[in-house]
Design brief:
The chain has helices at residues 5-26, 30-50, 54-78, 91-112, 128-139, 141-172. It is mainly α. The protein has one domain: Four Helix Bundle (Hemerythrin (Met), subunit A) (Up-down Bundle), CATH 1.20.120. It is globular, with a radius of gyration of 21 Å. The protein starts with a helix and ends with a helix. The relative contact order is 0.07. This is NADH-quinone oxidoreductase subunit J. One of its GO terms (molecular function) is quinone binding.
Length: 173
């Protein structure tokens, strides 16, 4: 088996993505968790580039690595925190987490080892942004619109919760 540059790039990006996810679960400071999440998002964007989905890679960088992460940091900075520290996780929890990650990786490997999609015409490199738009606004228009309604409901819920917290803070003062 020869190791091509594309395989090594994928392997390194996948390792960074998995390490970012594991660090996100194990770190204790929220800002450090967000930085680990950014590493995961950027490595996933790199995997999109390897798959010739440059549009998705740019959207991944702009939306997730940029906007979502900035919103998380603003949310962290603008909210009050009760400084109740949780006990440190024991070594048993870390071992179980590691075994869970290995088990998940093994299950994914077994699931895709002999996976055969048959002969699918390879048109990924041709007009992939146009193909995404056509599929999104024709075949998947209902899930697309339901997602927008769900995000609107989450935004309204966040505003209501923030307003309740603001009213409680005004009563205490």
């Amino acid at each position: 088996m020869t190791l091509s540059g594309e395989f090594l790039a994928f392997l390194s990006l996948a390792i960074v993505a998995v390490m970012g996810g594991v660090l996100l679960l194990n770190l204790t400071k929220v800002v450090h968790m967000v930085v680990a999440l950014v590493f995961t998002f950027i490595s996933i964007a790199g995997i999109f580039v390897l798959l010739s989905a440059e549009f998705l890679a740019v959207v991944q960088i702009l939306l997730y690595s940029g906007a979502i992460t900035i919103i998380m940091l603003f949310g962290i900075m603008l909210t009050r925190h009760d400084d109740t520290s949780e006990p440190k996780a024991g070594s048993l929890r870390k071992v179980l987490l590691f075994l869970g990650v290995l088990g998940f990786g093994f299950a994914v490997y077994i699931g895709i080892y002999n996976l055969d999609f048959g002969q699918v015409p390879n048109t990924l490199h041709e007009n992939n942004t146009e193909q995404i738009g056509m599929a999104l606004y024709s075949k998947y228009i209902i899930p697309f619109e339901l997602t927008s309604v769900l995000l609107l409901a989450a935004l309204i819920g966040a505003i209501v919760l923030a307003k309740k917290d603001d009213e409680k803070g005004a009563e205490k003062e």
